[in-house]
Amino acid sequence: MTAQRLSRHLVYGANGMICSNSPLAASVGIKILQDGGNAFDAALAVAAVETVVIVPMCGLGGDSFILLHEARTGTVTGINSSGVAAAGATSAYYRGQGYRHMPLEGPHAVSVPGEVAAWEMLHQRFCTKPFAQLLDSAMGYADNGFPVPPGIGRSFASNVGKLAQFPSTAAVLLRQGMPPQEGDTLVNADLGRTLRLVAEGGAEAFYRGDLAQRMVQGLGATGGLFTLADFAGHQADVYEPLSTTYRGHTVYQTSPPSQGFLLLEMLNLVEGFDLTPLGQNSAEAIHLMVEAKKIAYADRNRVAGDPRCVEWPLQELIAKAYAAERRGEIARDRVNAGLGALQPVEADGDTTYFCVADGAGNCVSWIHSLSNAFGSGYIAEGTGVLFNNRAGRGFSLTPGHPNEIVPGKRTMHTLNCYLATKDGQPVIVGGTPGGDHQPQCNLQILTSLLDFGMDPQAAVEAPRWWSFPGTDPATLEREPELRVEAEMPENIVQRLTALGHRVVRRRPGVYDGKVQLIIRDPQRGVLMGASDPRGDGQAVSW
């Protein structure tokens, strides 16, 4: 393969590093570090700003999944905060309304938002700065506005119809029916007031106060089935993350209802193959990873659900013995048509991921999302809060399905992120948005780093593949295909086709994922940041 020409340089730092899809958010986080805050303080400030300025992808109406390494204790902790289905939401109700699949827009697509509960849990356990201080910049960008970056402008332009169908949404995000364009200043004063309530009253104000009542009333006015108790009962989960070992590293992942276990299962499967001699992005290496993906995703579709509601063998699926048992189903020289035959489905979505590290060794890997672009498309009047469509994206209406919608149940979640340690020290912090592409992209990044020894920025910029379909119940009948970015070399495409893959090239300019990646070198005391040019973001160091 020819040498890869990079569009960005790897960023180095010693005291702190933030990689975000929003330069505004990254800059705010660095200021927090420079003012004496730790990585957790900076991460909360970054998350808050992102919920204001990365409008299509995350918000107070969305969910968060977080992994944290605490230098003081040497431990990795997970925080999951995804919400439940509405009290009145049953599969029988939606089937009775004539639906074959969950609606993807409007109040019926919404699950209880988890973002604010994640903020409070993080702050109570790990932060050093006052909560309101860490939300200050986010409130400023909501009150005074921010210039719309290119990617956000394109997303607005392609979702006008979705935003225009709800007058309360159009009043905030459209100007006389027109979307903001790149460089326009977008103000959301209602969101600024909501953030101020949260800054003063924390999660209590969001889930149990007057604000919660206004959100529930707004959802109900347009058909939603929520009660105040649905919001009042929400809490974030704190837990010990899932993990496996790979090439001398311990890789941590978010726990269910996140589908982060897929990455661990795939790593276990490909660990039995010597990838290094095959070469990064060789057809042979891609083939082995795609076949591993089919096994893992079929397992997810077959058995995985909210562990509070569904019993399934999670620990078995991420065990080395299970991988050894299933690895024999992967043929080196051909596609195994039987792999992944259990309920193949598709997914994509709009999410954003960022990572933070400070000079002391504290690290944060954080992914949050509204699910599809602009989520449900619905804003409860007067709140500025754009709600997710996670219930619409994740739940099934099929009786007995592991993700059949049930009141008070959480859907399995595409959101996941990872953090890897070596000899007890954090060395890799990374993730990406992209729905069901996330575990596959994370697999590509980790193998590029650990099997092929790539420069982190080169690993981020390398052409990517995406084995379709994935896990979304909305499109169960799509024909399987292997999608590759336009930059993938033609000889690789031809070889993959010869191995039996149905290869489809993405259009030029259409990319999969927006990776943010921090590499930590404990011996040299150096941080390295790589930010994906596929997005609007950047790596910022101190």
Short description:
The chain is an alpha+beta fold. The chain has 20 helices and 19 strands.
How does this structure look, described?
With 542 residues, the chain is α+β, with helices and mostly antiparallel strands. It folds into two domains: 14-238 and 349-394, no CATH class; 257-348 and 431-515, Serum Albumin, Chain A, Domain 1, CATH 1.10.246.130. The protein has 20 helices and 19 strands. It has helices spanning 23-34, 39-53, 91-96, 115-126, 131-134, 136-144, 150-157, 160-164, 167-173, 189-208, 210-221, 228-232, 261-270, 283-303, 314-317, 320-327, 390-394, 437-450, 456-461, 490-498; strands at 11-13, 16-20, 63-70, 75-81, 146-147, 185-186, 237-239, 242-246, 249-253, 350-358, 363-371, 418-422, 425-431, 465-468, 481-484, 503-505, 516-521, 526-531, 538-541. The strands form four sheets. It has a seven-stranded antiparallel beta sheet with strand order 1-18-17-13-12-9-8. A hairpin with a 2-residue loop joins strand 12 and strand 13. Helix 2 (39-53) packs parallel to helix 6 (136-144), helix 13 packs across helix 14 and helix 13 crosses helix 18 (437-450). The two termini are 35 Å apart. The model is unreliable at 340-349 (pLDDT under 50).
